Amino acid sequence: MGRPRPRRPRGAAEVVSAAVVAVAVLVLAVRAAAAALGSPGEVRAVLLPLVLVAGAVAGWRLRRAVSRRRRARERLATLRIDLAALDAMDDRCFEYALRDLLLRDGWPARRVGGGGDQAADVIGDHRRRGRIVVQAKHTRVGGKVGSPVMYAVKGTAGPVHRADHAVVVTNGALTRDAMAWGDRHGVHWVDRERLRRWAETGAALHELLPLAARPRRNRFNRAA
Fold first, then answer.
1. How does pLDDT run across 26-39, given as a tens digit for each residue?
2. Using alpha carbons only, what angle is made at residue 147 by residues 146 and 153, rounded to the nearest 5 degrees?
3. Model-level pTM?
């Protein structure tokens, strides 16, 4: 096994932190040189160019990181996914697509689906709207999601995930009983038509459903 390679800094915060560490190392090196040279004038002559170079490199990397993040936000802002593309995805890709749609709508979100996900495939945290839990059900066209999925989401959204909103999303359909149960018990649902409006037309999920701007915390812990 080869030696592990250091990971490049990601994002502006990590770039700044790396630059601070680099400057600190540089200062220690200069102090060691100062102890060897002994002359303050010689120390300044060595220190100033090095500090200027380090600052220029840190500024350049910070600008690059900020530029990359801005371009990523701009790409997400125009994200549209048609139903045919969603239908062609596997379960994992479908979950990532829903995560990206939430990011587009201003929900910092992450995919958490997998073994033991406890009825949560995507979780997003919004400063004003709270936490959203999305259960993704990718199915063949014409497939239907039944009430047991709604029961599972209801049972874990608050107690396990501390969510303010729970949503079941499918590229198929939901049974009439599942939709009615979700409406009664506060589990939102997105069927094929709502998914089309969300993914293809750019409608924001929190406006499509709608979701409260200032939700009451942990309402899923309350008795139905």
1. 666 666 666 665 56
2. 110
3. 0.66
